[in-house]
Design a protein that fits this description.
With 222 residues, this protein is of the alpha+beta class. The protein has one domain: Muramoyl-pentapeptide Carboxypeptidase, domain 2. 34% of the residues lie in helices and 23% in strands. A nine-stranded mixed sheet has the order 3-2-1-4-5-7-6-8-9. It is globular, with a radius of gyration of 22 Å. It starts with a helix and ends in a 5-residue tail after the last strand.
Length: 222
């Protein structure tokens, strides 16, 4: 009787439904397995100007960024809970508006998002290709008028807390999923250009595509 009951349960509709459910979304299951269980660190603090010595103890947070034209920066911007002011300044200069070289101090949490996103993908040592960093209002307005992007009127790029980026060798959809898993700020996905947008603004997400000369998107977010 016991053997017959086990056999009956094995072929019941509930058992078949569970078996089907396990194989329903293989890519999602693969992504869950691939993403490391790494959480966004708590916000750090910036020491006083007269404190020139960075801390020696604690995990080191390193970023390698590259821009078109070959400009590269490789810097440790945070140790433990302490941001390194000099490194933050270097990153802000690197992410300047390249149309007029104007610099704006970046929100350090932007760098935490970048670092943790790569750690999620087990790619902490990878370079991040920066497509767009800080934009002045004039630059952002010019992009909007060009009609070639979905630049928002009040873009987070203007605030100095957003980047458009790629990571060589990593599909944009995987970058998007890793960024979304952090549940921090905005995440935009651009499948045609194979890049994503991340920022420290309000939590939201969107996908943007340009097809047959027309824009296809929910609304302007970037």
């Amino acid at each position: 009787m016991l053997a017959a009951l086990i056999a009956l349960l094995a072929f019941s509709p509930l058992a078949r439904a569970r078996g089907t459910q396990q194989h329903k979304h293989p890519r999602l299951n693969a992504m869950r397995h691939m993403l490391s269980n790494v959480g966004l660190p708590v916000p750090g603090f910036i020491p006083d100007d007269d404190d020139d010595n960075p801390p020696e103890d604690g995990p080191k947070y390193q970023l390698r960024l590259v821009r078109q034209g070959g400009e590269i920066i490789d810097v440790i911007y945070r140790v433990g809970d302490t941001y390194i002011p000099e490194a933050l300044d270097q990153l802000s200069v690197f992410l300047r508006d390249t149309h007029n070289d104007e610099v704006k101090s970046y929100d350090p949490r932007t760098f935490d998002i970048l670092h943790t996103m790569l750690a999620k993908l087990n790619r902490s040592s990878s370079e991040i290709e920066v497509l767009s960093g800080y934009r002045t209002k004039e630059t952002n307005d010019a992009l909007r008028e060009s009609g070639t992007t979905n630049a928002a009127e009040h873009s987070q790029h203007i605030e100095g807390n957003a980047l458009d980026l790629r990571v060589p060798g990593v599909p944009a959809v995987e970058l998007r999923d890793a960024a979304l898993s952090l549940r921090a700020g905005g995440v935009g996905y651009y499948p045609k250009g194979q890049f994503i947008h991340v920022d420290t603004g309000p939590a939201r997400k969107w996908t943007y595509a340009r097809r047959h000369g027309r824009h296809s998107h929910r609304r302007r977010h970037a």
